[in-house]
Write a structure and sequence with these properties.
Layout lengths: L38 H4 L6 H8 L9 H11 L1 H4 L17 H4 L3 H6 L22 E4 L5 H11 L3 E6 L13 E2 L2 E2 H6 L4 E4 L5 H13 L2 E4 L5 H4 L4 H7 L4 E6 L14 H7 L2 H4 L14 H24 L3 E6 H6 L5 H8 L17 E4 L4 E5 L4 H7 L3 H4 L7 H6 L1 H12 L4 H8 L6 E4 L3 H6 L1 H5 L3 E5 L7 E5 L23 H9 L3 H9 L5
Helix pairs in contact: 7-14, 9-11, 12-14
C-alpha cells in the first residue's frame, strides 16, 4: 500500500531504520494461503431482518433503584449489610449505598470491592468457607502449624494433637509473654488442642476413630514416622476412603534426600533462594522471615484445598506430598528458566533488578524508600530536583541506566537525602511516574492508617484465662460472603481433649477420665 503524502507544510518523515534482528528471534512464518469456504459456510442462509432486530435490541432485566437494590442485597447476604468503608472527610453517611460509599476508584466500585468488615474476636456472624471441615493436625514446629492455621482462619475445625507427657516443641520457644510462647501463639491461633499417646494401643485406636470422622489429616514428620506407628496414609486411608492425608517434609516422600530433615534455613539453601539473596558480590543470606517454613506451609494448605475440591468430584480422598525444598524452588522466578534457556547461573544482585534501573531501596533523611519501574524518567528527575540527570545521556534510557547504574544510584542517594521517606512518598506517588513505597518497620505497621482501615492487625485473647490480648496479623484473604474467622486463641495443652472425644466420638466423661488415668490422653 502506498504511503499517504504528508499534510501541506509538514516535511516528509524520513524512512524508519530497519528492525534489528534479535539473536533469539524466530523467522516469521510465510503468509498462509487464503482459506476456502467450508460446505456449511458456503450454504449459509442470510438471517432475516427480524432476527437481526432481535440481536440489536437484547432483552434486559429492569434495573432496580438504588434503595431497592441495597435492600435486596442486604436481605440476601448478611455480609452486605455489614459492609463498611472509612469515612470520607466532611461526611457522616456511611451506608453501603450512600454517595460517599460510591466514591473511589472505578474498578473497585464496578467490581464491588469496597472494604468489608473484617472478622474480630467474638464478632463474626458468618462462618468461614471451610466451615464443617475437620482437620486432625499432627504437625509441629512452624511449617506444618502455619499451614493448618490458614485452614483454621478459613473456618475449618483444626484439632492439634500433642503428646500427653511433653509439650509441642514450639511451646518452648521464646520470647514469653505471661509465660506464653509468643512464637507458638503466632502459629497456632484458632485451633483446638488434645493430647493422645500415639505409641499405646488405645491411643492408636483413638486416632483411627478420629480419622474416620476427619476430612483431613496433616503431619510434618520425617517420611515413614507415621507408618512405623501404624498411623500412616495406608492405615488411616483404609479407615476413611474420603480422607485427605497431607504430609509436609524437608525433601518429600521419595528421592535420595527423603530421609533427611530440613529446617527453614536449610530449605532456603537447598531450594536455591538463599543463593539469590544477599548483597552484590556478598555471601548467601537467609531471608529475615522464615519463608523456608511458611511457603512450604502455604503450599500444603493450597494442596489440601485442591484435594478437597477433587474429593467433591471423585468422592475419594488422596495423599498429598509437599517438600520444603521444592516450595523454595517454586519461588525462584525466572532464574531456573534463564539457566535452561541461556546457560546462566543467576546469583545475588542485592536489591537491584537484572532488567530495570532504578530498582530497590534508597536512603532518605530519616529512613528508606523503594523506587522501581520508573515510567517517566524526566518527570521523576524533576520531582527529586535533579534535572541534570534527566538530560544526561548516561541515564536517558533504561538500558543506559543499567550500564551506568553506580553513577545513577549515587545521584539518587544524594537527591533523596533532602526529604523524609514520608515526604517523598506523598510527593512522588500521586505523580504516577514510578512505583514508590516506604520501607516500613514493624513498629510503622502498628501506626499505618491503611493497616488500620483494613483491620490487618487484630487482638487475639490469651489462653488459660489469662488477662489481655496480643496483636496478630489478620488473614489477608478478604472474602465478601464468607470472611476469614480469626480471633480465637492458641490451644491449651490438652485443653479440648474431653470435648473433642465427646463431640467426634461420643465418648463420655467417665471414659475420658479412665483414659486420662491410664496416660492415654491428657
Amino acid at each position: 500500500m502506498a504511503a499517504h503524502p504528508p499534510p501541506p507544510g509538514r516535511p516528509s518523515r524520513p524512512p524508519a531504520p530497519p528492525r534489528l534482528a534479535h539473536p533469539l528471534a524466530r523467522a516469521r512464518p510465510a503468509r498462509l494461503p487464503p482459506r476456502t469456504l467450508t460446505a456449511s459456510f458456503a450454504s449459509w442462509t442470510p438471517r432475516s431482518p427480524a432476527w437481526w432486530s432481535r440481536r440489536a435490541t437484547p432483552q434486559r432485566r429492569p434495573r432496580l433503584s438504588k434503595s431497592s437494590a441495597c435492600s435486596r442485597s442486604a436481605a440476601a447476604s448478611p455480609a452486605f449489610a455489614t459492609r463498611t468503608r472509612p469515612p470520607t472527610p466532611g461526611t457522616t453517611d456511611q451506608g453501603p449505598c450512600s454517595p460517599s460509599s460510591r466514591r473511589g476508584s472505578k474498578p473497585s466500585r464496578l467490581l464491588g470491592l469496597e472494604p468489608y468488615a473484617r472478622s474480630r474476636p467474638g464478632e463474626s456472624s458468618v462462618n468461614g468457607p471451610l466451615d464443617g471441615i475437620k482437620v486432625l493436625d499432627f504437625t509441629w514446629a512452624l511449617a506444618g502449624p502455619f499451614a493448618t492455621m490458614q485452614l483454621a482462619d478459613l473456618g475449618a475445625e483444626v484439632v492439634k494433637v500433642e503428646y500427653p507427657e511433653t509439650d509441642e516443641k514450639l511451646r518452648g520457644f521464646g520470647p514469653y509473654y505471661q509465660g506464653i510462647s509468643t512464637f507458638f501463639f503466632s502459629a497456632n491461633r484458632g485451633k483446638r488442642g488434645i493430647c493422645i499417646d500415639l505409641k499405646s494401643a488405645e491411643g492408636k485406636d483413638l486416632v483411627k476413630r478420629l480419622a474416620r470422622e476427619a476430612d483431613v489429616v496433616t503431619e510434618n514428620f520425617r517420611p515413614g514416622t507415621m507408618d512405623r506407628l501404624g498411623l500412616g496414609y495406608q492405615s488411616l486411608g483404609a479407615e476413611n476412603p474420603r480422607l485427605v492425608y497431607a504430609a509436609l517434609s524437608g525433601y518429600g516422600q521419595t528421592g535420595p534426600y527423603s530421609g533427611m530433615a530440613a529446617v527453614d534455613a536449610v530449605a532456603q539453601a537447598m531450594g536455591g533462594t538463599m543463593s539469590l539473596n544477599g548483597e552484590l558480590g556478598g555471601h548467601p543470606m537467609r531471608v529475615g522471615v522464615s519463608i523456608g517454613d511458611m511457603v512450604g506451609g502455604l503450599y500444603l494448605a493450597i494442596g489440601v484445598l485442591a484435594a478437597l475440591r477433587a474429593r467433591d468430584v471423585t468422592g475419594g480422598g488422596q495423599f498429598l506430598d509437599v517438600a520444603l525444598m521444592e516450595a523454595q524452588m517454586a519461588l525462584c522466578e525466572n532464574a531456573i528458566v534463564r539457566r535452561s534457556a541461556f546457560g546462566e547461573d543467576p546469583t545475588r544482585q542485592g536489591s537491584r533488578h537484572a532488567l530495570l534501573a532504578p530498582f530497590g531501596p534508597f536512603p532518605t533523611s530519616d529512613g528508606w524508600v523503594v523506587i522501581a519501574n520508573v515510567k517517566e524518567w524526566e518527570l521523576f528527575c524533576a520531582l527529586i530536583d535533579r534535572d541534570d540527570m534527566a538530560f544526561d545521556q548516561r541515564f536517558a534510557t533504561n538500558r543506559a541506566r543499567l550500564e551506568n547504574i553506580d553513577a545513577m544510584e549515587e545521584g539518587l542517594v544524594a537527591a533523596l537525602a533532602a526529604r523524609t521517606a514520608e515526604e517523598w512518598f506523598e510527593l512522588i506517588e500521586p505523580a504516577n511516574v514510578c512505583s514508590i513505597g516506604k520501607v516500613n518497620s514493624i513498629a510503622d505497621l502498628f501506626e499505618d492508617p491503611h493497616v488500620a482501615a483494613r483491620n490487618m492487625l487484630i487482638d487475639v485473647p490469651l489462653p488459660y484465662g489469662l488477662p489481655g490480648t496480643l496483636k496478630l496479623p489478620n488473614s489477608p484473604l478478604h472474602l465478601s460472603g464468607t470472611p476469614a474467622v480469626v480471633g480465637k486463641p492458641m490451644p491449651e495443652h490438652g485443653g479440648d481433649t474431653a470435648a473433642v472425644l465427646r463431640e467426634w466420638l461420643g465418648i463420655e466423661a467417665a471414659q475420658v477420665e479412665r483414659l486420662r488415668a491410664a496416660g492415654v490422653v491428657k
